[in-house]
Automatic annotation (TrEMBL), chain A:
<keyword id="KW-0813">Transport</keyword>
<dbReference type="InterPro" id="IPR050763">
    <property type="entry name" value="ABC_transporter_ATP-binding"/>
</dbReference>
<dbReference type="GO" id="GO:0005524">
    <property type="term" value="F:ATP binding"/>
</dbReference>
<dbReference type="InterPro" id="IPR003593">
    <property type="entry name" value="AAA+_ATPase"/>
</dbReference>
<dbReference type="InterPro" id="IPR027417">
    <property type="entry name" value="P-loop_NTPase"/>
</dbReference>
<protein>
    <submittedName>
        <fullName>ABC transporter, ATP-binding protein</fullName>
    </submittedName>
</protein>
<dbReference type="GO" id="GO:0016887">
    <property type="term" value="F:ATP hydrolysis activity"/>
</dbReference>
<feature type="domain" description="ABC transporter">
    <location>
        <begin position="3"/>
        <end position="256"/>
    </location>
</feature>
<dbReference type="Pfam" id="PF00005">
    <property type="entry name" value="ABC_tran"/>
</dbReference>
Automatic annotation (TrEMBL), chain B:
<keyword id="KW-0472">Membrane</keyword>
<protein>
    <submittedName>
        <fullName>ABC-2 family transporter protein</fullName>
    </submittedName>
</protein>
<feature type="transmembrane region" description="Helical">
    <location>
        <begin position="132"/>
        <end position="152"/>
    </location>
</feature>
<keyword id="KW-0812">Transmembrane</keyword>
<keyword id="KW-1133">Transmembrane helix</keyword>
<dbReference type="InterPro" id="IPR010390">
    <property type="entry name" value="ABC-2_transporter-like"/>
</dbReference>
<feature type="transmembrane region" description="Helical">
    <location>
        <begin position="159"/>
        <end position="180"/>
    </location>
</feature>
<feature type="transmembrane region" description="Helical">
    <location>
        <begin position="106"/>
        <end position="126"/>
    </location>
</feature>
<dbReference type="Pfam" id="PF06182">
    <property type="entry name" value="ABC2_membrane_6"/>
</dbReference>
């Protein structure tokens, strides 16, 4: 087991200030503090080579947990080990076996080309010439970096920069990779490239990956297992497919007609959408096939599609639950 | 470690070249204050013009060679969360700062030394009268001064884990140091009480002390005492920095998402 977290807590003491001039002046001599519990009693383990999606609404505690795993934050209580190390001890050996990539932050040095950051990392991570050359070659090819290496980082587009960020984070071949919103702000095409890269990289090197994302596309493409955190508590930890079955025990039947019959669909299922020529029905999982057969038999159906409900819908539901 | 430093120095050098204009302005901007102060004193004591010229030219040189800006960098990086960037890497963030200091000061020296030499050709007052051992002691004192200012600046910067906009605190220290380091006037011109203080505080050893060595004001027992006090402050500041670092790491909120 590569990552083990048990009964993890993190609370912050934050200064509370009401809006307005008077309140701002008052806060000069009287400060009110309140304690915010960002992470409450979170426990989980992750095995080598797993890709786990870490989901939750904004402010749920994902990034805080990830920062504790990467050793940036000191837990208030509880235990963490990553690859046998206690992250907040900040041992150089620990830092050499992991990487944290934050979509919102750059580890590349801003005003000089990415290649310079790579060279500094080579020295700092004690990467020998041969493995550096090999790894760089592989990353340049997979991420199509060749034209970017000698341009100042600040002049790269977000997508180009993100590809370079990934390369910088992987040069030392970390065994554990924390990805915090790696596809944020990227266009669909680049998102897909990054996803494909992560999957390939994981398969090739058996890297353990914990990933947060707001894009369900990332989660669907990358993760078999998801953990859902809300208000600092872990409310679900398991397979994505099980979650879908649990929270959305229905299928979507998208039925196309040449002309939609004007009738009550109640006996077939719950209507999700009606548009020109198309009706979308929510039908209980076990009845989906039978319902489709009946529709085909009774109506002039041009096309019929049975699919799982969209992941967004499942996750939104999960976020509303206390415990899944 | 040497390999790491070579890589860091190289990177900082390239980065510095990317900020050519800023580096130049920064370099020349710092010259204005001592230059004006020099003219003021020359106006008050015209009969001592020559020694003021030498003193304040030396202030410009030593001030640049010992200057420290780390408090502003740390203040910004910790407040904005970019400090995490250095923390994630397997090398203590202080080494990045040390490498940066070396590169910039090397550049300052490369510019200032030829300027001094050229000026001394035309302006006899600028010609130093130093023995070989005086030069060695002067350079050692400059390194001590640079270390003291760096340690003070970096330690203050670490306070950013507790206080936002910590550069303001450093601003107060800087004003005190303006007088007690000899930047406004040679320390021998201070009232006796302040002068007494200045010998025990670290500021003298940041700028005035190397100049006193160069002008021959400090020698013999005074010299040994000066180096001992400077070394004592260095130890104290290293201790403070280590403590602040440990405590700061527990306090770190690694802000930003």
């Amino acid at each position: 087991m590569v990552i083990r977290v048990s009964h993890l807590h993190k609370s912050f003491r934050v200064h509370r200030r009401e809006a307005g001039w008077l309140e701002a002046a008052r806060s000069l001599w009287r400060r009110d503090y309140r304690v915010i519990e960002a992470v409450k009693d979170v426990s989980f383990t992750i095995e080598k080579g797993e890709i786990v999606g870490f989901l939750g609404p904004n402010g749920a505690g994902k990034t805080t947990t990830m920062k504790m795993l990467a050793g940036l934050l000191h837990p208030t209580s509880g235990e963490i080990t990553v690859g046998g190390f206690v992250p907040f001890e900040q041992k150089p050996e620990f830092k050499k076996m992991m990487s944290l990539v934050m979509g919102q932050k750059s580890q590349l040095i801003w005003d000089i080309p990415p290649m310079e950051t790579f060279l500094v990392n080579k020295a700092i991570y004690d990467i020998d010439d041969r493995s550096f050359r090999q790894t760089l070659e592989e990353l340049v090819e997979l991420l199509d970096l060749a034209p970017l290496l000698d341009k100042p980082t600040r002049s790269l587009s977000l997508g180009q920069r993100m590809r370079c960020e990934l390369a910088a984070a992987l040069l030392h071949r970390p065994q554990v990779l924390f990805l915090d919103e790696p596809t944020i702000g990227l266009d669909v095409h680049t998102q897909e490239n990054v996803r494909r890269f992560i999957v390939d990289y994981n398969r090739e090197h058996e890297t353990t990956i914990l990933l947060t994302s707001h894009y369900m596309g990332d989660v669907a493409a990358l993760c078999d297992r998801v953990m859902i955190i809300n208000y600092g508590r872990l409310i679900y930890d398991g397979e994505l497919s099980v979650l879908t079955e649990k929270l959305a025990p229905y299928k979507r039947l998208e039925v196309r007609f040449s002309r939609v019959p004007d009738m009550d669909w109640g006996e077939y299922g719950e209507v999700a959408e009606i548009e020109e020529g198309t009706v979308v029905l929510r039908v209980a999982r076990e009845k989906a096939a039978g319902t489709a057969a009946r529709l085909l038999e009774r109506f002039d159906v041009r096309d019929i599609n049975i699919e799982d409900p969209p992941l967004e819908e499942v996750i939104t539901r999960a976020f509303q639950e206390e415990r899944v | 470690m040497i390999r790491k430093y070579i890589a860091l120095l190289r990177m900082k050098y390239i980065e510095m070249l990317a900020y050519r204009l800023a580096t130049f302005v920064w370099m020349t901007g710092a010259i204005t204050q001592p230059l004006i102060t020099m003219f003021v004193w020359m106006n008050i004591h015209p009969e001592e013009s020559e020694s003021f010229v030498f003193y304040f030219m030396a202030v410009i040189f030593v001030e640049r060679m010992t200057s420290a800006w780390d408090v502003w960098e740390l203040d910004r990086e910790i407040r904005e969360g970019t400090f995490s960037n250095w923390l994630l890497r397997p090398l203590h963030p202080i080494h990045w700062a040390i490498a940066e200091n070396i590169v910039y000061k090397w550049l300052f020296a490369v510019i200032l030394v030829p300027v001094w030499v050229a000026a001394a050709v035309f302006w006899p007052a600028l010609r130093p009268h130093m023995t070989g051992s005086q030069v060695a002691l002067f350079l050692t004192a400059v390194v001590f001064g640079a270390a003291l200012r760096f340690l003070l600046s970096y330690s203050c910067g670490l306070l950013a884990f507790w206080v936002t906009k910590v550069a303001a605190v450093y601003g107060v220290i800087d004003v005190i140091s303006l007088f007690l380091s000899g930047r406004i006037a040679p320390l021998e011109m201070l009232p006796p009480a302040l002068r007494e203080w200045s010998e025990w505080l670290p500021f003298r050893y940041m700028i005035s002390f190397p100049i006193e060595i160069a002008t021959g004001t400090a020698d013999g027992g005074e010299l040994a005492r000066g180096f001992a006090i400077a070394a004592g402050w260095m130890m104290a500041l290293i201790g403070a920095l280590q403590w602040l670092w440990k405590a700061g790491m527990r306090k770190n909120q690694a802000v930003g998402g």
